[in-house]
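Give me C-alpha cells for this 282-residue protein.
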Amino acid sequence: MKQRVLAILTAVAVVCGGALASAQEAGELIQQADAAFDRWTGDFDFAAYQARLEAAIELWEQALPLVPAEDVAVQAHVLNHLAQAHFEMAEAYLFAAKDREAAYAAGSDYALRSLRLNPVFGETEARDRFRAALRSATDVAAIFWYGNNVGQWYNFNWFAAIVEAGVQNVLAAYERAIELDETYLGGAPQRSLAALIAQAYFVLGMSRDDAVPHYERSIEIDPDYLESYYNYAQFYALPTQQTELAASLLRTLDEKAQDPESVGKWPFYNTLAVRRAEPLKR
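Here you go.
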C-alpha cells in the first residue's frame, strides 16, 4: 500500500513538475514574442518589422499549447495578439489573395477562441448564436479583432457575408466594442464601424452618411491616429465626390506625418496610413 501511495505521489510530482516547466517555457516564449511585436522601443522600420511580426506569431503559437488551461488571462493575451498580428500581416505585408484570406481566417479563429474563454459566451453562443453571446463578452480586444478579421475575410466570401448575415455579426462586434471602450487603439472601434458603414451601408440598410459621425468621433478620440484621415477620405469622401473634404483630410494627414511625435504614437499604423494615402493624391 505504501509503495502504491509513493508511486502515485511520484507521478503527481512528475506531472506538476512538467506543468510548471511548460508554464515557465510558455512565459519565456511569450516574453520573446511581446518583445518582437513591440513597435515603440527604438526606431521603427516598417519593412524590417515584417520579420519581427512573423517571429512574434511563431513564438506565440509555440507558447499557446503550453499555457495552463486555468490561466485564462495569459491565454487571452496570446490569442488576442495572434488575432491582431495575423490581421496586420494581411494588411501590410501579404499581397496574394489566398494568403490574405488565410491570414484573416486565422485571425478570426484566434479571436473567437479568446471570446470562448468566457464560459457564458460559449454557452450563449451554442444556444442563441453569436450576436446574442456578444452581450456577455467583455474583452474589447477579442471582440474588435474578431470584427476586423472576419470583416476582411468576408471580402473574399460574399455569400457568407450577405446570405448568412455575416456583415451583421461584424456590425454587432464593433457596436459592442464601442460600448466597452471606444478609445481602444486610438478610437479603432469607431473608425472600423465607420469603414463598415461606408462600404456596406446597402447591406446594413443604412445610409453612407451614417459613417460620418463615427469617423469624426474616431478623430476626436485620437487626432494623431493617421489611419482615420486616410480611411475617411478613401471610403467616404472620395466615393461621395466630396473632393474638398478628401483634400482636407489628406492635407491634415500629411501635416501630422511631418511630426515625429505624432507618427511615433502609432508607428505601424501611421506609417501604413501614409503609404496608403499616396495613391489618393494623384
